[in-house]
Specification:
CATH topology: TIM Barrel
Mean pLDDT: 93
Largest sheet: 9 strands, parallel
Structural class: alpha/beta
Low-confidence stretches: none
Strand content: 5-15%
Length: 266
């Protein structure tokens, strides 16, 4: 049986557009708002990434760090993240959710315990930023046994030989990091160059769903819409920060932003 992630990509391909993948941090700016945000933006987004906050987020730029800081200050725990997913899935059983974070929390929790919680709450996939290939092989295979997608990462410096091995071992989605930077950095390379690199990877395995993340905003998204999927994260975290500063409702504000992002790729 196809995974919900694979089905989401199939649906977008039928509509001849990329999948819109959003990233928000669980518990930002409150647990309750975090759930409301997921419910709202899921009407426009095809796949939702949900970050579990960590106090040393090595791949994250300022905007996502700000979101994580708010969530941690509010006392977010891993069990709360699973509760948010469970409540969301109750009303949106077919919408794929990918948890994104760092291995330390999984290690502390115990891999099997963590995957058990993923399964019972309805998590569809995992992106573990600091668990690279081939060190992730054993955990990725545990994920596969539980029908949870482990999403491998590729970057502009990944060698072709290594790329082939990673793609061969990948599940239903691969994440291509567009540039050497933390999240939310300004695009240092042209969209044309990103797509050239992207297409080289696609030629290795044309059927694999390959998405682009890092540096994607409302200004850059339409120039990259030939990709299978596009991830927007820092821009959404920044929207929450700005709406809180202005005393606005972050839920309605994000709903508008994601709706507009979707319009740019249809």
């Amino acid at each position: 049986m196809k995974s919900k992630i694979a089905l989401a990509f199939d649906n977008c391909k039928k509509e001849k557009r990329p999948a819109l993948i959003t990233y928000t941090v669980a518990g930002d700016n409150t647990k309750n708002n975090s759930l409301k945000i997921l419910n709202k933006i899921s009407k426009h987004a095809d796949i939702l990434e949900l970050g579990f906050a960590h106090n040393t987020p090595i791949a994250d730029g300022g905007q996502i760090q700000g979101s994580s800081h708010r969530a941690l200050k509010n006392g977010i725990k891993l069990k709360d993240v699973f509760q948010i997913v469970k409540k969301f899935k109750k009303n949106n059983p077919h919408k794929p959710i990918i948890l994104m974070g760092y291995f330390n929390l999984i290690y502390q929790n115990g891999e099997n315990n963590f995957l058990k919680s993923c399964k019972s709450s309805g998590v569809d996939g995992l992106i573990i930023v600091d668990l690279p290939y081939p060190e992730n092989k054993s955990f990725a295979s545990k994920c596969k046994k539980k029908s949870i997608n482990f999403i491998q990462l590729l970057s502009p410096t990944t060698s072709k030989d290594r790329m082939k091995k990673i793609i061969k071992d990948s599940h239903d989605m691969i994440y291509y990091i567009s540039m050497l930077s933390t999240t939310g950095g300004k695009l240092k390379v042209s969209s044309k160059k990103i797509l050239q690199n992207y297409n080289k990877i696609k030629r290795i395995s044309p059927k694999k769903n390959l998405v682009i993340g890092f540096g994607i905003t409302d200004k850059t998204i339409s120039s990259l819409k030939s990709a299978n999927g596009l991830v927007v994260g820092s821009m959404l975290c920044k929207t929450i920060t700005n709406s809180l500063k202005m005393g606005q409702n972050p839920v309605t504000k994000l709903d508008k932003v994601v709706y507009n992002l979707k319009k740019k790729i249809i």
